[in-house]
Fold these 2 entries.
Entry 1:
Amino acid sequence: MSTAETTAESGKETELSPQFHVAHHFDSADTQFDAGRMGIWLFLVTEVLLFGGLFCAFAIFRSWYFDSFVEAHHHLDKVMGGINTVVLISSSLTMALAVRSAQQSKKELTAILLAITLACAFAFLCIKYVEYSHKFHEGLLPGKYFSAEGFHTKHPGVFFAIYFMMTGIHGVHVVIGMCLITWILRRTMRGEFSSRYYAPVEGVGLYWHLVDLIWIYLFPLLYLVG
Amino acid sequence: MAQAVADSPIPEQSGTNYINAQKGILSWLLTVDHKRIGLMYLASTIIAFALGGFFALMLRLELLTPKRTIMDAATYNQAFTLHGAVMVFLFIIPAVPGAIGNFVLPIMLGAKDVAFPKLNLLSLYLYWTGALFTLSSLVTGGLDTGWTFYVPYSATTGGAVVKVTLGVFILGFSSILTGLNFIVTVHKLRAPGVSWFRLPLLVWALYATSVVQILATPVLGITLVLLMMERVLHIGIFDPALGGDPVLFQHFFWFYSHPAVYIMILPGMGIISEIISVHAKRRIFGYKAIAFSSMAIALIGFLVWGHHMFVAGQSHMAATIFSFLTFLVAIPSGVKVFNWLLTLWRGSIKYTTPMLFALSFMFLFTIGGLTGLFCGMLSVDMHIHDTYFVVAHFHYVMMGGTVIAFVGGLHHWWPKMTGKMYGEKLGALSCALVFIGFNATFFTQFILGSRGMPRRYYNYLDQFQPLHQFSTVGSWVIGLGFIVMAYNLLASLTSGARAPANPWGGKSLEWQTASPPITENFEVTPKVTHGPYDFSPEHQ
């Protein structure tokens, strides 16, 4: 397979990095990029459905135990949740900028932006850790382990089951995202990406935006809606 | 064939093919060739089928007499749980896409491989890992919840629930990755000239299956995570004592597991479309109707899960709507059956083993489908819910449908996969044995169920014994049929005649390359100018 003929959009020499080659079963680099991009989008669909189940459970239990959900949600820290929302949205911005700079073959800028994204993700987890330890300390825990005093409604443990499952699984996705960002950061520093080959950066970027987007739904539903 | 490049004759047997291209166990374990991965899936799923079949024979043997025959009640509960879990998660769901789909789908598209070959290998490894977890329960205490893992029992029983659910969770990833791979492959890797309406119908069926795999399996994933959490940490989402809702588990479970029924049957229907057309040398009747009916089944299949819960306490309104939607599934299913029948009409039918299996399929699947309407009808379901009638119904669809289609497809593509011809006489004998044994085993169970025999019971009233015994004897005939089939296929590997490139005169792309194919599938990327079922004389 010849990769030199694959730049349909411009007549100039291709800028594929030396490590990149078109896999044997694709007829061009463009088909390969398109296939990869489509694969990522389909994967994101599965993620939406995974969280969809949890959102569904949230909706059902909220309608069942409306008073309990209202009472319990006052025990979540709106300030920390708000800060975390800002932190994650910022990281999404730096991620988007990193994809853009990778497309422009700006290696150093891409690396810096990815590093900031990584730092934001880490900050998010630190704040989440502080929040979690408060909940543990006060006995605001799921189901059987719920031991907080002074609740006037039935089954407040259900709210915290939903809270911990949703934010916990989201947190796992943040950790996976950090691993992926570290991976593309290393590859960026090795100079593997260019305006002709940036698919992994874009893929990780899409994943990171989804993680961010899910939090943007979690925050108002769990922390704000009364 | 409808190939522009078909002027150059196809080599009947190439010296090098995908099997002998590389040697050594590592060349298999680290391969990214879709054909080798398909073959490893084939071996793995057939082992799972044999294991699940062994459990089934033991269950039937136990039911030969009321009370104890060969095992105690606790062992019986574990045996039917593992029979169900192994057959559903380790055999039916991965078998057709993983084994036959992996092998033929890229070749049918004229591609060299699936879009993501490494991901494909990962799917296989995830399948093995999931299988290991699921089967580890055999030696670590067993599982007695039934394959449906209903709470609250699954949250309290002493069985190995977490191991098996973790196994099924991992198997779900394998299934999702296969589906994702197939969808991208069909979109991006079709050879020049392979337009959407020149795709073989198996590809359409696998595409519809993949859509279901991608949209349904994640919901099973989250359900199983919640179940594990319920069991280990008692989080109270499903446990009514803590405010949770066990019916929510059923909704979640069937939101996956009902569409999963179509993951199981759709690829089987795709195989039948191929076999009927090729072995009757007849252009498939209603190509677009069959293609779109696959998509219709996939979509409607997402809206009917509540029919598993007619007696679980859902509202009358919900039950009525689910019942209505369930009947809708019969329309695209009927479209398929009638189109196959019309394809046979005035065709030059050859009674080869694949064709015999396809004819069996049409007979058995029709019974399975029509009895599904009984179960979907609210008033009737009240009586037959959780009886042997339901057991018979889904075995007619799953075994009489999918398994029969799978073994039919196995015979159909066996020459392509192995380069050897199986024996037609033994093939026909095995088909006859399976067909007779199957009807003896499961038609009896329709009668048992309509008379009130509940499913999953260890003991039963004396009046049911003659029918139970008849059913058990039938299961031995099925077992014998599969032994004959296994012998026939395995013997062909050493003593079978060498297969020509196109033993059946098929027109789709997999018949336009050597048997077995080379690693890249085609010497030259084919250019297709006609559809896959053009049997008219001007295209001969």
Entry 2:
Amino acid sequence: MQRLILVTLAVLTACFATPETASARIKLITLPVRERVEIQLDNATATLVEEERIVPLVKGVNQVDFSWANTQIDPNTILFRVLPRPDGEVEALEVKVLSVSYPPNENALVWQVAASGSGSARVRISYLLGNLTKSFTYRAVADHDESTLVLSQYIRLQNFANEAFGSTGLWAGFGPRFLKAVGINETKQILMEKHENVPVRKTYTVDATEFGYLDRPKNKLTVPMHYVLKNDKANKLGQAPLQFGKVRIFQEDGRGSTAFIGEDWGKFTPLDDEMRLYVGTAQDVVVVRTIDKNEQKRIVGSLYNREVIVKFEIENFKDRAITLDIAESVRAIRNEVVGDTGRDVEWELGPATTFAGGLDKSQSTFDKVVLHADLDARGADGTAKKVIHKLHIIIKNEW
Amino acid sequence: MRRMTLCQLFVIGLAIAVGSATGTRAENVDLSTVPDRNTVQLTIYNSEDLTLVRETRKISLKRGINPLQFSWANTLIDPTSVELKFLTHRDELEVLDTTFPHAKPQLLYWNVESEFDGEATIEITYFTSGIRWSADYVLVADQDETKIAFEGFVRVFNDSGEEYEDAQVRLVVGEINLVERIAQLASIGTKDVADLGKAATVRWKKEAVKYSMFADADSSGAGLGEMREEKGIIKEGLSEYFLFTIDGTETIANGWSKRMRSVKPVDVPLKIQYRYREVEYGSQLVRMYLMRNDVGSNLGTSPLPDGIVRVFRDNGRDGLSFLASQSINYIPIGDEIELNLGVDSEVVFELVKGRVWRDHIWIKVDGADVFRRVDDGNIAVDVRGSVAGWDEHAYYIQHVRNFSGKPIELEIRRLLPGHVVFRNGLGAVLHDYQTVQVTAKVTAGQRAQIRYEVVQHMGRNEKQANVKLVDIR
């Protein structure tokens, strides 16, 4: 049901010069229909509707009345533009908008439009419309060995604007334009892009600050497993930033079907960035974290250095080798062993650190230490080799 | 529906003197004539709820005392502002007194003494509230974002309770000082006007349509069957303000508003800058459209009044993209127009604190007013004392990745309170004593890293409250 109405009032009788004769005027109302509608969804928070109508005008001054009911059109954003004729066609009419009047207590406005002759003009009316919103969702299907996946991106349009749109152009600011009808209270999900053979990196990470403990009394850390996709061309993506949205992840089961293995909110991912998707907890990787050493060395007066060794006892019960990412917040370590002083931590890596390769400088910052541990698969007898790694942090100039 | 009337009163019944030795006015039975307005001019201020109304009327006077009644039921007129002037026969006419009757609010009497019999033109001026105007702008950038089509509009709102037909409309741009609000001085508030009833509103609306169609046709000198030009707006300076006068006359019915173009579409050169200014735009890099209100930019004929700017861009697909909606403050002639379009998803900006360390640590020896520097080698480990001063070093890397397909200009301002040394090889300058400004250009597809070190003097090392720049190139 169309709730937006465009009306033109054409004066058929001779012009009357005084207000007293106004009641004698004979009016003809025409209702120009929409010729074309485009819904622009490229703004993060606003939806712009552009509709074209062919408006019959008479020579002189015309009133074009635009009204709406029960829709959230922002009246201050309504634009009225007369479109030029296509190339090659003679400009038949000169059309100018003289003014816009807004009646009280009514969702309507009246354009005063002057025309140089009688004829029709193609006009485009644009406005921001509330309750017509978009979101994005993804469906990822990983292959059986989890080395690549197929990522399908969908746009979901929810029309609670109380206005029906017939065949309407939809564009999200990237990807293809769609021509669809969108009914009132309808939710329309459209496949935007399907990316095949996207390499996926599977990571296992422990971070006591970010992911916490699986079993605190036993100091067992939670080991979340993530799928990491890189949004660049080398990884079969990189056409546009990946929009925020829910990602449902499936895996081929090797028997011609798929199984749902988890879902996560995919954050907005610019080009060249990584989208990390938390799939689930890897309980076959056991990591016990303990503070092995906490020793204070006075420099002078109240000024101290402190040596802390964090010990990780790691067992991989999986049937394949993996790399475990270990992240620690140095400030959280200092707060754990001393308490919070309110100051950033000056630190350096101590010689007792056992991780091969040392600090991952690309991911580490003034506060975050990132290291990696390669873990063998469990043995043929089902037992896992216990690997012990130590992180030696020298905290300096504390008081 | 007109609520303001001027009546000439003639005594025909039992006369009761009302305090004037020079004439009597009937209290219960009156005869009056109602002279129409000849002209009306509205001067509307946008900084205050204030409009100066100046209207002229022709009246016939007899020699002697002529009582005039002026009333303004259900309007928002400030009674203390009503004035009567004589535009003709100035030497032969005099206002003897003005009476505001206790029993009849929104009404006054003038006793006018005339030395002649005949017609005179009078001018009545008063302040009213309930009429206001606002400006707004529609900007459409071309696809390449090198220029922007700039249009300005003014919108006049009439909620005053009174119809002003064929009024000359003048809009005042600027901020005036008022010691009392006009709406408070008027006898009823705006809300009461709004509550006058739906029937009255509908009646006004119908009349307004009627008036607007005919009055505009008359005022332009063209009939409905003739092509009409859009009205122009004359802009001129007035003291600290600017006056926009709309060509011809306008009828804006009560309850209605009318929007007219104040700046005809012009193409304005556009500059794009990316800014990081935490104080102004938060902790994010924002994309700015920058223009100038000057003749070189096809503007500059008047200041741009406060208003809402709505920014669109040609999306290259025979349509527009909505970019932003933003309020701007008054922009004088020659000044810059700055529009914040928000974060650009094609330009990635990350601030990383890479390393922290401390030096120049001072210990205050317990029990004495003695300070020892820790790293000078002349202090024993077991000295009892506490840290009294140090320098805190932080090394920052600002990563910028430009996927926009075009080179971008970057400006970073960082507020660094306290006593700070800013060490860099970037040619940084001080925006003010505690704000550092760095500019850079990042080519299309480039990943740039902007590195600098901030040294904060703390405790007894803090001697100043400013930033010192050290160039380490």
